[in-house]
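Task: sequence design from structure.
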């Protein structure tokens, strides 16, 4: 794990900002794959006209943004907390969009393909949002020198 050290001359305290652990790297890769799944899922379950473009655009954005964070971590750079926070918000949108955009499916009788797509988006959105929020949280915290987190 790479680290960068910051010194606060006023207090004489130094802390270390973590530079992406292996766990963050692999979780970012996993979130990127979830984004790819979201983008491709309308074609697997049969495209629902209302969800097709939403899933393509938002899933593609999650794929690219989480992939960018994975790339940063493989090059020993710090986690981009802003990017992963945006991915968490996009994951929440995928979850919420089932009712905001796909409301026609919720009100009428669901076809098997539409039900699968809805559940896929609900689960994928929640997992992507949760993991991305965790990565943003752990990547943005500062760890005081000499703590167990540095070992």
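Answer:
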């Amino acid at each position: 794990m790479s680290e960068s050290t910051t010194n606060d001359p006023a207090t004489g305290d130094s802390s270390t900002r973590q530079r992406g652990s292996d766990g963050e790297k692999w979780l970012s890769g996993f979130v990127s794959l979830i984004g790819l799944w979201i983008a491709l899922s309308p074609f697997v379950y049969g495209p629902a006209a209302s969800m097709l473009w939403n899933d393509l655009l938002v899933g593609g954005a999650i794929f690219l943004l989480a992939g960018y964070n994975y790339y940063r971590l493989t090059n020993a750079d710090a986690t981009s907390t802003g990017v992963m926070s945006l991915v968490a918000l996009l994951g929440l949108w995928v979850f919420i969009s089932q009712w905001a955009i796909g409301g026609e499916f919720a009100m009428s009788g669901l076809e098997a393909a539409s039900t699968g797509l809805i559940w896929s988006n609900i689960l994928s959105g929640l997992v992507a949002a949760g993991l991305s929020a965790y990565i943003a949280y752990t990547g943005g915290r500062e760890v005081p020198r000499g703590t167990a987190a540095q070992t």
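The mean pLDDT is 79.
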